Amino acid sequence: MGQTLSLRDKNLNRPRKQARARRRREKVHRQRLIALGVPADKVAKLDAAAVRAMLKRPAKLKK
Asked: Whole-model pTM?
């Protein structure tokens, strides 16, 4: 038969999202904000959505 039957349903073969990878991405995003000049104490208080929103337009960040 081959592998066609086992690979046909993509949802059963797709890897799951890992919490570890999400934490690593969020940590990298926070490091990027600090490198752009945002104070570290301010970055620590932000949630993940706010961090991503700030990184969308890095030119508009207040130094």
From this structure: 0.74
